[in-house]
Write a structure and sequence with these properties.
Elements: E1 5-6, H1 17-28, H2 41-61, E2 70-73, H3 76-94, E3 100-104, H4 109-112, H5 115-120, E4 124-128, H6 138-144, E5 149-153, H7 167-176, E6 180-184, E7 201-205, E8 216-220, H8 246-261, H9 263-281, E9 289-290, E10 304-308, H10 314-323, E11 326-327, H11 343-347, H12 352-355, E12 358-362, H13 369-388
Parallel strand pairs: 1-11, 3-4, 3-5, 5-6, 6-7
Antiparallel strand pairs: 2-8, 7-8, 9-10, 10-12
């Protein structure tokens, strides 16, 4: 059977041992399958386990968030949708003049695809473009905000380039204007320390850090005005009704504990591997270029290398690498199959032809350096061969 080297952790990371152990322990627990909202003994035990997972996630998240402020969702997309709709409409319900929403132009599709719906609901949505390095400058946000601003949303780290955003500075600017601040921390959580002490809402997801697919959370300050977007049951304090996934919550918390418990060591290990990979494949004369000048670990997530090859389109690169046993992506997995260049790279000012040759290589400390070296050899050979044959 052919073996593959999976290098698409930013799309979804393989389950970690800790998360698998948590799921196995749940399956053996007396309360497995019990509804945590039931009043009987097993229901109360399930509820206690759920609250334990909520406490663990609040602790790992940091930023002063309390367990009661962690709302479980089905993943990052729902968390982002819920934050934009719920927070913007909550603010407007208190002050009808607050009708502006400011979002960066490099957000995940789960935010940008909400823009038309927000406009249909009467909001004026302003998009803020990044600089050529992929960073959203606080000054650009300050210029975009009006006195009618209800909500600002800028991601903690970009899901395609890995560029870390100045969320703490932007949050202060939002608050000075009387607006709330939300950040999509789906890619950043468990990879770098989050600067969210001034942030009102934070989206996270389990499957990016070695937890299961289908569970996420929105951390929302109690003081925040919020309008629910779904109804029935009253779970999660009425902010996100529906019977909670106790198994998923426990596995999510276990994965978060594993990531945050040795974050500095994991971060350093991933950054060293990414820097070595970057220096090899983007060396002068290779025909491979970085999408951003932001430095790995300092200005960019460790464990993510974002590049483009002007001479070859992404689809060709991905399929040829797949044939060689290496699994990478062009960018966001939620936009795979699109013939258009990445909206992130386009917003950064990268030309269409260059952006169409983009690749994202992502991994964590579980990937060995020798395997990354093998990948570099394969990519360099592929690009060199294409250059010799004019494609």
């Amino acid at each position: 059977m052919k073996s593959y080297l999976y290098l698409d952790y930013a799309a979804s990371a393989p389950m970690c041992d800790e998360a698998e152990a948590a799921e196995a322990a749940y399956a053996e627990a007396p309360y497995a399958g019990a509804n945590p909202n039931s009043l009987h003994t097993l229901g109360r035990e399930a509820a206690a386990a759920l609250e334990g997972a909520r406490r663990d996630l609040a602790r790992c998240l940091g930023g002063g968030f309390r367990p009661a402020e962690v709302i479980f969702t089905s993943g990052g997309t729902e968390s982002n949708n819920l934050a934009l709709y719920g927070m913007a409409e909550g603010v407007r319900a208190r002050d009808r003049r607050r009708t502006q929403v400011v979002i960066s132009a490099i957000e995940h599709d789960s935010e940008l695809d909400v823009v038309p719906a927000l406009r249909d609901r009467g909001f004026d949505v302003t998009l803020v473009r990044p600089g050529r390095d992929g960073r959203i400058e606080p000054e650009a946000v300050a210029k975009a905000i009006t006195r009618e601003c209800a909500l600002v949303s800028v991601m903690s780290a970009n899901n395609e380039t890995g560029v870390i955003q100045p969320v703490a500075e932007i949050a202060k600017i939002a608050h000075q204007a009387g607006a709330l601040m939300h950040t999509d921390a789906v890619q950043a959580f468990g990879r770098i320390p989050l600067e969210i002490g001034e942030v009102d809402g934070v989206s996270i997801a389990a499957h990016k850090i070695g937890g299961p697919v289908g569970i996420g959370a929105l951390a929302l300050r109690m003081r925040c005005p919020f309008r629910p977007q779904a109804f029935g049951g009253g779970q999660e304090q009425g902010k996100r009704p529906g019977t909670q996934d106790v198994r998923g919550a426990l596995a999510f918390a276990a994965a978060a504990d594993a990531c945050c418990g040795n974050l500095s060591e994991r971060r350093a290990a991933c950054a060293a591997k990414a820097n070595r990979l970057f220096s090899r494949i983007c060396a002068e004369g290779t025909g491979i270029f970085p999408t951003t000048t932001a430095k790995i670990d300092d200005g960019r997530l460790p464990g993510m290398v974002s590049i483009y090859v002007p001479a070859i389109d992404s689809e060709t690169l991905i399929l040829k690498l797949d044939q060689a046993g290496f699994e990478v992506s062009a960018g966001s997995a939620c936009s795979s199959g699109s013939l258009d260049p990445s909206h992130v790279l386009s917003a950064m000012g990268i030309g269409r032809n260059d952006a169409l040759g983009a690749l994202r290589i992502s991994f964590d400390e579980r990937v060995e350096q020798t395997d990354l070296d093998r990948f570099a050899d394969a990519l360099l050979d592929l690009v060199a061969t294409a250059g010799r044959h004019g494609k």
